[in-house]
Structures are given as C-alpha cells and as structure tokens.
Structure to design on (461 residues):
C-alpha cells in the first residue's frame, strides 16, 4: 500500500453551514486500497477516518431534515472525532453570534426555551454547550419507577416538574459504530431483542424528530442511507506528533487497520458471555506489539515516544486494579472486590468499549463529584425510603430501576485525541484528567511516569 501522503488529495465540502475538509484517495494511485480518508490535525497529531465507500454530500446525514436548520453533522463533526468539542462550538458561536443551528433552545441551551434575545443572553443560555460540549437530554421518570425525584438543586433555575430531569451529556461519535454493544450513553436505543443496526435506524429518526425538531419521520430509505454511511466510518489517531505514523513498522494503529478488526457481541467478555466459547484475554490491545523489539537500542525522540506508547499499552492491559464499589459489576456479581485491569471493562479487542451491554456506575455522578455547573437530583426509593443524590440518574431514567441510577455505557476508545473532553458529562478536560480520576477512584497508585505512558497510549488510539 502506498503512503498516505501520495495517495490522497484534499477537497472542501460545505454541508449544513459547516465546512468539512475531506481527504479523498486517488483510486488509480492507491490501487483502490484506500476508498476514502478524512484527516484532521489535533493537539496530539492527526486523526483519520477511513470510509469503505465514497463520501456523498447528498447523504441525509449532511442534509437538513427538520425545522431548525440542523442535520446529523451539526453535532457530529468529522474534524472533532465525529462529535463536538468546546473549541469547535466556541468558534461556531463567535462566527455566528450564537445563531448557527447547533444553538437551539430545544436541547442546546441549559434550559428549554431559554432567553436568547441578545448575544450576552445566548452566551449564558448555551454555557454548558460552550464549556463542555454538552447537549441537554430531558426525560420524564418512567411510569412505575422504583424512585421519585424528591428535590432538585438547579443552578439554572429551569423550573418544571419533579417528575422530569434535565441531563447534560456529550454527543457520542457517529463513527466506529460497528463495534457498539449499546446505543446512547444510557442504552435507550438498544432495547432487548433489537439489533444494533435496527437500533441505529430508530435512533436516526429519533434524533431527527428531537434534535432537529422534524414534524415528520424520516423515510425508510433515508434511515438506511444514514446508517449505512455511519457504519462505514472507522476513526482512529493516524499519526502522533512525536511517534509519527502509528502504523509504521508493522504497528496496527490508524483507521484502516481498525476497519479490519473482528467484532461480535461478547467477543472478549470477561464474564463468559463470548458465544465462541473463547476465554477472556486481558491483553485486549495489541496495536503496538510490533514496536517492542525495535525500541531497546533506540534513543531518538521518535523511538522514545513509541516506547512510551508501548509501555502505556502494557499498563492498560496488565496493571492490577482492585475493582470495588462499581454498580453494575460488583453488586451484580455479589463480589466486593474484583482483581482486574483496565481491560476488564474495556474488553473489545483493539477498540476498548464493552463487548456486551454493561452499563456501570463508576461514581462520576455522585454528589461528591458535582461541579457548580451541574444540577443535583435527590432521588428517593419508593420501596425502602433510601435516598441518593446524583447529577444524572443515567440508565435509571430508561428502566425506572433503582440499581440503574448513575449507570452509563463505556464508549469506544479509538480516536480519543480528537474529541476532548471525556466521560458522558465532559467531567475530564484531558486524558491525564481521565487517568487521574481512575487512579484516585480505585487507589491504583500510578506513578507520574506511568500516567504519562498511559496518556501517550490513549492519545495514540
């Protein structure tokens, strides 16, 4: 296969008011080996997206289908890991005075129907979107739920019924969807018995009716075209500022190698749900194994950077973690402490999400983690009278179950460098913040050098 630099050319496509730089291969030069690549710089190097087909800007993914000017691409920017970032949102606010389609009060503002009559008012109304890249998800407590909302401490004074909650969440990437085991942070588009593809077909319509405020459903053909496009996208970091090309010397970084990864539900499940019967392999990441032999005698800056990535991968795969107090894991298994590693939860090989549905509560929404810009909900168990405080009830707003409070799915880890901040609520501004959270949460005891190596690995994904 010829090099990236000689195989591609750049073109510009304007869709839904957003300029997307698209890097399209030269099929004659590449021997049809590269069908389509998108390439964007980020602070760690360059993220790339490989697409099995040729980009068609007339795909309904890029087209307005509602009433408020939005399309799927409005909140799923190729240059921002197919999600959005605060920097990108802030630039769009500045360029449009806060009038671009992402700035709509049905879900872009902190409160539904917020005052947006002036520039200052819009700055305040969309503060969470601007600071963390968060979209408001408003939901009612399900009928027959095991809990009620007893009280709300809301910094935005949105009012409303105690029977509903506003949650603020990051738009998940619309790439690497082939590896999903659940759709949406709370899994609400993945009811039992529905395939991932069928869930995505439903989600495309729900997003159009909700986020884009469409009066009519998408046609079956439009849904199919959107989902076909999304399922063809594979995004990963393609090059690192210091380590350079992440597929060099037989390493398996980058989106083309990612597109070749096998996946099925349960492929490496540590709880024995692998339909193939294969045992769980904690060495879920092998992307940079090929670099190990060549690093011993090298002392260049590039070799040092690659060595850090290799060490970070080893830490991710093997460093012991005593997993305690995780709702969805310890309580479901009735085990106080589980000896594991990062890959106990991030088990999909070379992808890093859960290979089965496994929403977990790792403590991100607990009252002691609350920041001043988040609401705090007090929930009461209607059967036991117990109380819990949370900034986001999570999957419990779908199932109505007390045990599901604060549970969320783990996202695909590929392409992380392009889409900060992290976690469902943008709690971690950087990948070092992510590592520090886990180190403190599970008392891992990582050294500063080990943290740096983990960050090097994560930003190379």
């Amino acid at each position: 296969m010829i090099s990236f630099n000689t195989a591609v050319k750049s073109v510009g496509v304007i869709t839904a008011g957003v300029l997307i730089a698209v890097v399209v291969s030269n099929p004659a030069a590449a021997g049809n080996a590269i069908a389509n690549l998108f390439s964007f710089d980020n602070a760690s190097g360059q993220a790339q997206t490989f697409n099995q087909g040729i980009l068609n800007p007339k795909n309904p993914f890029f087209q307005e289908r509602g009433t408020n000017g939005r399309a799927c691409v409005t909140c799923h920017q190729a240059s921002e890991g197919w999600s959005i970032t605060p920097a990108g949102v802030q630039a769009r606010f500045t360029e449009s005075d806060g009038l671009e389609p992402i700035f709509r009060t049905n879900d872009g503002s902190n409160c539904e129907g917020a005052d947006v009559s002036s520039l200052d008012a819009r700055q305040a109304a969309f503060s969470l979107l601007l600071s963390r890249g968060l979209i408001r998800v408003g939901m009612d407590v399900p009928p027959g739920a095991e809990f009620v909302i007893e009280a709300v401490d809301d910094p935005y004074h949105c009012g409303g019924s105690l029977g509903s909650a506003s949650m603020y969440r990051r738009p998940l990437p619309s790439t690497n969807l082939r590896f999903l085991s659940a759709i949406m942070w709370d899994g609400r588009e993945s009811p039992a018995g529905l395939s991932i593809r069928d869930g995505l077909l439903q989600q495309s319509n729900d997003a159009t009716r909700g986020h884009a405020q469409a009066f009519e459903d998408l046609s079956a053909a439009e849904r199919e075209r959107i989902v076909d496009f999304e399922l063809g996208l594979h995004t990963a970091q393609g090059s690192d500022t210091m380590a350079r090309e992440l597929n060099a010397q037989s390493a398996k970084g980058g989106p083309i190698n990612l597109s070749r990864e096998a996946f099925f539900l349960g492929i490496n499940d540590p709880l024995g749900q692998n339909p193939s019967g294969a045992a769980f392999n904690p060495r879920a990441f092998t992307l940079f194994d090929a670099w190990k032999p060549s690093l011993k005698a090298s002392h260049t800056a590039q070799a040092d950077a690659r060595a850090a990535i290799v060490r970070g991968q080893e830490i991710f795969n093997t460093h012991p973690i005593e997993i305690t107090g995780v709702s969805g894991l310890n309580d479901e298994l009735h085990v106080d402490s589980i000896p594991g590693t990062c890959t106990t939860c991030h088990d999909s090989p070379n992808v890093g999400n859960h290979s089965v549905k496994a929403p977990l509560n790792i403590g991100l929404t607990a009252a002691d983690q609350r920041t001043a810009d988040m609401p705090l909900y007090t929930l009461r168990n209607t059967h036991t009278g117990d109380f819990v405080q949370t900034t986001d009830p999570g999957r419990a707003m779908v199932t109505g179950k007390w045990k599901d409070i604060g549970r969320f799915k783990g996202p695909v880890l590929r392409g992380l460098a392009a889409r900060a901040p992290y976690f469902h609520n943008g709690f971690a501004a950087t990948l070092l913040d992510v590592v520090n959270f886990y180190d403190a949460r599970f008392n891992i005891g990582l050294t500063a050098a080990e943290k740096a190596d983990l960050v090097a690995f994560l930003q190379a994904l």
About this structure: The chain has 13 helices and 13 strands.
